[in-house]
Amino acid sequence: MQEVSKLKRSFEPIFSILPYVKAPAYRVPLKEKLKWTGIVLILYYLLTQIPLYGLSPTAVDQFAQLRAVIAGSYGSILTLGIGPIVTASIVLQLLVGGKILRLDLSRHEDRAFFQSFQKLLSIIFVVLEGSALIVSGALPPISQAFAPILLLQIVIGGILVIYLDEVVSKWGLGSGVGLFIAAGVSQAIIVGAFNPFPSPAQPGVPAGRITGFIYLLATGQMPDFQTYLLPVISLIFVFLVVVYAESMRVEIPIAHGGGKYLKVPIQKYPIKFLYPSNMPVILTSALLVNLQMIAMMFQKIGHPILGIVERGRPISGLVYYLSPPRGIDVLLVDPAHALIYGIVFISLCIVFAWFWVEVANLGPRDLADQLYKMGIKIPGFRGSKRHIERILNRYIPPLTILGGAFVGFLAFGADLTGSLGGGTGVLLTVGILHNLYEEIAREQMMELHPALRRFFK
After folding, report:
1. DSSP designation for 76
2. Which CATH architecture has domain 2-456?
3. At a CB cut-off of 8 Å and minimum separation 6, what does 427 contact?
4. What is the CA radius of gyration of the chain?
5. Structure pTM?
6. Which segments does the entry list as coiled coil (predicted)?
């Protein structure tokens, strides 16, 4: 703890000059949360429409396959999206999970340090990732004289995203990271399904899957199943599976020890099957984006040790096998690619699920402490924190592993079928919207029954 105190003192002068969004001094009503969430969402859409001045007209999105997870808009000042925030989160999770940075996130001081450190790291990664995109050629300027101007615009956009995320986290619903992902994927789904304008690949045929399907039927042509129907079917399938999985839970019998907050004993405490939620997929995808960015930098300097990327598509090396396979035919044409990617992706989802549960104070010990302080007891056991933790240990670690593996497998499968909005993006969006729905329901319940606020805190 002495080392942590020294570290805090070292960074305190830097943290003191960082702007921050003031936390509310009162409980924010649901209507106000909805207002701030809506304002941030509108600002996000407006910022995605501001183009980068000085960007070469021949620029091609090198991360189109993973754009939904980054939640950025290529060629705009929000090109980086949430990439720096998620990368900073990955680094901090590894530092805290590996006990390199010894923080007790149940303590207010350590949690405040963690959040400030994450913001500082996010800003650093905005500069690093923006520089990497320009150096690697992913964001080519019209001339080298425009490179600093490009970087300045990217940095401004990246920092705006960091603070918009903070506004949502403190004054809105959910998190800015989830909100931006859902917004970007929803837009991609609507455009991908109903785009009425013709595709360059098929002049005269609407580019949207549904509009193109209807047009071909109306003109007496037979639409290709894999091109038009499979992405829509995959979208519906992923939606239904995620909604069903979100409703699956293990219920632990509990009883309240009495007190002024709750007069009626609670009979069941639910632990969701998707206990780590969709964070493992976000973190895994962000890690793969960074790997591709590093590969492009090595390629730019003439040492493609991680593989070769051409027009945004990895074509060889490690980065190729760790890129999302597109289309069911990959299983026949290049099964090694699909197998290696699937194993690595699912394994990383499990690892990040474990790290996320620990860092987010969702582990058995942290949850047992919360339940104990609320006066919750397990029937048939003594009302001690140790006994509650022992019961939770039976469920939380297995659910963490199963939940991480499940979302990883589902995202991998949806990517194979070429789901509208991207398989990973659809998975994340459905989970995010479902969590938002649950949060709104909790807020409404707490406004109707103020005594429940302590339980949902």
Report:
1. B
2. Orthogonal Bundle (1.10)
3. 238, 242, 278, 281, 407, 410, 411, 414
4. 23
5. 0.80
6. none
